[in-house]
Amino acid sequence: MQISVIVPAFNEEKLLAATLAEIQAAAQSFGARGWEFQLVVCDNNSTDRTAEIARNTGATVVFEPFNQIARARNTGAAAATGDWLVFVDADSHPSAALFADVAEKISSGKVLAGGATVQMDELNVTTRLLMVLWTCISRLGKLMAGSFIFVEAAAFRQIGGFSHEHFAAEEIDLSQRLKKLARAAGKKIVILHRHSIVTSARKLKLYTAREMLGVFLGSLFNYRRTVRSREATFYWYDGRR
């Protein structure tokens, strides 16, 4: 068994080294089972030291010139050789316990894909409410957060990976298509909750409430148009770090 962890990264020199170090430490949970581990970083047209930092950790580094999260994840997946793919965002931190939970689900033979509940690295009233709301939606709807997704490689490729039409919410689209495939295969989509993925709350500092509210309202009233527009989902792509 081989597990490939894929990290899409756009101008992530501030956080990437810590993320990759934590992924490599957490991957001991796979090694304990005798499984092989591969780390792939997709440099999504960065203008900083992202690629250099990734290479210094021993990761396989690939390049995606088109600045889009879905394409970066797919380009990383194309270079992956694992039986299972684990997608981790460059500002997110998995634990050995979370990877152990993933290994347990993979070994059961009953799971096609899954995600995890999310915890932000800085908590206040706003982030707590956001996390409670997302946890309810995610667990009830079996929707995977983009910060952490694991999926059988063959299934991921069968459905064509992440949609290139989406500049945001590509993980929601992937979740919906994987749920259909799982039902047909007699398997499950799971949201792990014993150990959350810890992710950065930096967007709440980098962007004003007005900016974030604008994206939220656009998604609420014209979801399809918003998630398919780079301009409408600017805070994933404007490079503010």
Q: Structural class of the helices, strands and pairings?
A: alpha/beta
Looking at CATH, the homologous superfamily is: Spore Coat Polysaccharide Biosynthesis Protein SpsA, Chain A
Choose one word for the global shape.
globular
CATH architecture: Alpha-Beta Complex
Instruction: Find the count of extended strands (DSSP E, 2+ residues).
Output: 8
Largest sheet: 8 strands, mixed
Number of individual domains: 1
Number of helices: 11
Structure description:
- The chain has eleven helices and eight strands.
- It is an alpha/beta fold.
- It has a single domain (2-200), classed as Spore Coat Polysaccharide Biosynthesis Protein SpsA, Chain A (Alpha-Beta Complex), CATH 3.90.550.
- Strand 2 (36-43), helix 3 and strand 3 form a beta-alpha-beta unit.
- The longest helix is centred in the middle third of the chain and has 17 residues, at 125-141.
- The protein is globular.
Give the helices and strands, then pairings.
Elements: E1 2-9, H1 16-26, H2 28-31, E2 36-43, H3 50-56, E3 60-63, H4 69-79, E4 84-88, E5 92-93, H5 96-108, E6 111-120, H6 125-141, E7 148-152, H7 153-158, H8 170-185, E8 188-199, H9 203-206, H10 209-221, H11 223-227
Parallel strand pairs: 1-2, 1-4, 2-3, 6-8
Antiparallel strand pairs: 4-7, 5-8, 6-7
